[in-house]
Design brief:
Distance between the termini: 10 Å
Number of domains: 1
Largest sheet: 3 strands, antiparallel
Number of strands: 3
Helix content: 10-25%
Strand order of the largest sheet: 1-3-2
Number of helices: 1
Strand content: 25-35%
Radius of gyration: 12 Å
Shape: elongated
Length: 59
């Protein structure tokens, strides 16, 4: 299960809340640690244009 966050890293909290609510609503089980994939990051991009994929393995 994954969800994209666009914006500064310090504002990623609400993205986690959304994905966790969805996982609970669908009665899925988290099957391991979450991870973040930095698709567009601090290498020249403005913080408001960062793109982070938040991932949770589910079963």
């Amino acid at each position: 299960m994954c969800l994209l966050h666009v914006g500064p890293y310090y504002q990623v909290g609400p993205t986690y809340a959304v994905i966790l609510q969805y996982i609970a609503k669908k009665q899925l089980t988290i099957a391991g640690p979450s991870r973040e994939v930095y698709m567009v990051g601090s290498m020249g991009a403005l913080p408001e244009k960062y793109v982070t994929e938040v991932q949770f393995p589910v079963a």
